[in-house]
Design a protein that fits this description.
Elements lengths: L1 E6 L2 E6 L6 H8 L18 E4 L2 E4 L12 E3 L18 H8 L9 H14 L5 H7 L11 H13 L2 H5 L13 E4 L1
Parallel strand pairs: 1-5, 2-6
Antiparallel strand pairs: 1-2, 3-4, 3-5
Helix pairs in contact: 2-5
The structure holds FE2/S2 (inorganic) cluster (2 copies).
Length: 182
Amino acid sequence: MQIQVTVNGKSRKSEVEDRTLLVDYLRDHLRLTGTHVGCDTSSCGACTVHVDGMAVKSCTLLAAQADGCTVTTIEGMANADGNGPTSRLHPLQEGFKECHGLQCGFCTPGMIMTAADLLTKNPNPSERDIREALEGNICRCTGYHNIVKAIQWAAEHNSSTLLADPHLWTNDVATKEVVETH
Ligand code: FES
Ligand code: FES
């Protein structure tokens, strides 16, 4: 079947099998491999992305269910690729950097996408709010303490307007180009 999804500001038209998971569509069709697969059973949260502004586990959704939707992945959170003089990381990415919120980094994209959803709804969360929001995201390395600190850092250092709209951070927000993938 053919689907049309706006991913990180770009409209994509793709031919997918009915059974294709959203995470496989992002990773295998669009080569957006920042979204990770940890369990494939909706347990770990590594595959979290935003669909129409809401954090979802992309291993639990079919690509077909995202037809007509707007999807943001971790690649859409910085206004560039994190390199170069004009690049700028999303406040949450800065927070994880500043507070050493990662070790191996496998869980980090999912943690950041879940945290971005939290800060959109609750720009000044308590430690308890943060820990509750992360209950569907598993980290095998850090003990969570610095992840919580990283999210608090982002909440303290940046305006809710920027946090609320990841597309303000992307280069391709105005892109109308339609890219076809098969
Ligand atoms: S890979 Fe989706 S929740 Fe673990
Ligand atoms: S930093 Fe390794 S799983 Fe979280």
